[in-house]
Structure formats: C-alpha cells, structure tokens
Amino acid sequence: MTDSELILTQLSAEGYQTSKTFEGADLVIVNTCGFIDDAVKESLDTIGEALAANGRVIVTGCLGAKAGDAGGNLVRQMHPSVLAVTGPHATQEVMDAVHANLPKPHDPFLDLIPNAFGSAGIKLTPRHYAYLKISEGCNHRCTFCIIPSMRGDLVSRSIGDVLSDAKALFEGGVKELLVISQDTSAYGVDVKYRTGFWDGKPVKTRMLELVQTLADIAEPYGAWVRLHYVYPYPSVDEIIPFMATGRVLPYLDVPLQHSHPDVLKRMKRPASGEKNLERIQRWREACPELVIRSTFIAGFPGETEEEFAHLLDFMREAQIDRAGCFAYSPVDGAVANDIPGMLPLELREERRARFMAVAEEVSANKLLKRVGSTMQVLVDSAPGLGKKGGVGRSYADAPEIDGIVRLLPPEKISKTLKVGEFTKARIVGTQGHDLVALPI
Ligand code: SF4
C-alpha cells in the first residue's frame, strides 16, 4: 500500500494523471507481491492482463526482485515484453522508467493536488484513516518468511519525518492513524535509538517516544493512534500504562504465530523465549481495556498434536480478542521448507479449523460482554447522513482486518452520522464478529 502511495504521490506531483482502466492509460504500473505462491500467481496474471489490454507495462514490488527457476528475473522470464522491472521501495527507479517511456506532462502545483496530505503524500485509503510506515525491512529471520530476503534488514525512517507525516495526515482530516512496519517494537534499533528532532525538540527514535509524541500530535485533532506489528518484547511493557490513559488506543496487533516454545524455536520467532501468556496477563492487569489481535500458523512442519493442543490452550487462556489463522503453506525460498515433518494438507487444514472454532468462541464471548456498554465509534459509511444507519468501528476494530460496528438508524431525529466523524453508540447486540449499536 505505501509503496503505491509513494509512487502515486510522485506521479501526481509531476503532473501525471491516473486512469481507472488499463485501456485508458498511456502506460500501466503494476505493484506486485511475491510473498506467497497465490500472490505470485495473482501478480503474474495481472501483468499479463495489463500487457494484453495496454501493452506498455512497468512492474515494481517484491515480485520484481524474485529470481526465476533458471536464474534471471522471474517477471522478465514470464513476461519478456514489460518495459521495466524494479524491486520494492524503488519509487525513483519507477519514476525513471516512467520518464523514459512517458515524458513529464507539465510543472505541477503541488497544493492543487486532490487527496494530498502535504509531506505525507497521496493516500489510497479513505480520507479519515491512514497507514503510517515507520520503518522498512526486518532484522529477524523467521524460517517461514522471505520478507528480509526481499526487503533487507530494518531501516527506520527518521523520527522527524515520521512525526511530520503524522501531523500532515491529521491536518488533512485523518482521524485514525495506523502505525505499521515489519517490526514496530524494533523501531530505532538500527540507528541505536538516535535522538532526532521534531518541532524544535529532541525526540528519541524509539517506540515509546514515538507513541507518546504521536499521542500529543493527535490530541488536538481528537484522532486515534493504533499500533500494528508489535512483538512481545519487555520494552513493550512500557507502552501499556500509556495505553491505559487512553492517549493511544488500547489495541495491540501482536503477530504471535504459535505458543509452544519448540514450535516458536523452529520458526525462529522474535521474542520466542518470552513467556507470552504471563506477559499478556500482566498487560491486561495494567490495562483492562486492552484488545489484542494476533495471527497464528497451524500445522507448521513438525508440529505434534501435543504442541497444537498447547496452542489451543493458549488461545483460551490468553483470550486473544481477534485471531486469524493460516494453515501452514510452504513459501518458495523459505528456510522452513527444509524442516523435517511436513504435515499433510488435510491435517494442516483440520488444525486451522479447530483453532478457528476456539478463536471464534473466545471472540464471541468477548463481544457479548460489550452489550449494554457505550463506545466511541468512528463512522466509515453513512449513506443519507446515517438516517438509515451506517457502519463504523470502535477502538477494538482495525480497518479491513477486524470486525465492524453496525450502526442502527439514530433514535433522535436531529442526530446525523458523517463519514470520518465519531459518534457515541450504545451496544445492543452482536452479529458474528461484529457489534450492533444505536448511535446516541
Ligand atoms: S518478524 Fe519474521 S515474519 Fe515478520 S517480517 Fe521479520 S522475518 Fe518476516
């Protein structure tokens, strides 16, 4: 998402316009993913479709960095007629390829660009929420993951730039800022937590200082700050009391992947030696409102029934509010492919289903406990000013991955709902992963 946004920002800044169709464009830029086999296939298909419909195609993104079976570049092997291929985070290379094939239209007036957010650029998300990438790459080497081989080691963005982008986004109307990276808790490790500057004051390049300053910047705008991809390191403990004050949302997206120490070791997970259950329980004591989202892998190579049962027990005890689970699927080039004990697909799928049954039970019980309470809801959709109701999210729901709050038509005639604004709502019921609420 953010690579596309950077490219779009630059294209708009240079006066290029976007087209909704392949046929209507002078050339097509395809941003690809090469992480899992399905994504590779989808990306290659999209390149093929763009070539058939338009003929002038530039390819960027992770797949562009991938080698083919016989060496060389996979994209070029499959689609020799593409104009240019770049790897990920290659805005300048993409722009060079665009310039070589389609001259700049005219000098732009940056301030006149629609959907622009000053230094933070163009956003593809709805105007009221935005993703803020704080670093790129990762220092870990999880055995199932090929991101470090495609994106390299962790490189933190300067704290001053990150905070300036945040301010520009809030200025532009963003009400929810989603902090993302491959490893948010490691922010600043690569620069030894160097002290940078923002607004004339020194600020350390470190997660705690980042979160505190983001909360300060968000406050006058009444906006939310939500943290994604946080690993359960001891340093995260410092953030939890701050979450309890409500200045940053008491929501943590912690990709745990498993609970059993031996499986975590085989996965080479960050913080695999930490006692995650105890840590989560301490976090909940310090911040009872805390909502935890996580993802897990069922049927990792060598996973025994006992190890899997450990995961189910963990899920019940840790009471993970929002959990997703993948049946293990080998990724081309991943070290995990060489771990002995690959399980049959049916068993991996069966374990995933058993995990999801437990996860859904935990989640449904947690949602039921909210019935009768009043929550603040950010409105995502409200046709006709919400006279017939709408859709929103509470602090417990990140966009696109969690549940929603279905808003009923307000009882008060004078009450309206507007996209990108907050409303208070009384929770009156649940519907699967979602809540049903009455705006008040
Ligand atoms: S932490 Fe592990 S799974 Fe996440 S990007 Fe780094 S290597 Fe991949």
UniProtKB/TrEMBL annotation:
It comes from Rhodoferax ferrireducens. GO terms for molecular function: protein methylthiotransferase activity. Keywords: 4Fe-4S, Cytoplasm, Iron, Iron-sulfur, Metal-binding, Ribonucleoprotein, Ribosomal protein, S-adenosyl-L-methionine, Transferase. CDD domains: Radical_SAM. Residues 1-103 form the MTTase N-terminal domain. Its cofactor is [4Fe-4S] cluster. Belongs to the methylthiotransferase family. RimO subfamily. It catalyses: L-aspartate(89)-[ribosomal protein uS12]-hydrogen + (sulfur carrier)-SH + AH2 + 2 S-adenosyl-L-methionine = 3-methylsulfanyl-L-aspartate(89)-[ribosomal protein uS12]-hydrogen + (sulfur carrier)-H + 5'-deoxyadenosine + L-methionine + A + S-adenosyl-L-homocysteine + 2 H(+). Gene3D superfamilies: Methylthiotransferase, N-terminal domain, Nucleic acid-binding proteins, tm_1862 like domain. It is found in: Cytoplasm. Its EC number is 2.8.4.4. This is Ribosomal protein uS12 methylthiotransferase RimO. [4Fe-4S] cluster binds at residues 138, 142, 145. It is an enzyme of class 2 (transferase). InterPro entries: Elp3/MiaA/NifB-like_rSAM, Methylthiotransferase, Methylthiotransferase_CS, Methylthiotransferase_N, Methylthiotransferase_N_sf, NA-bd_OB-fold, Ribosomal_uS12_MeSTrfase_RimO, rSAM.
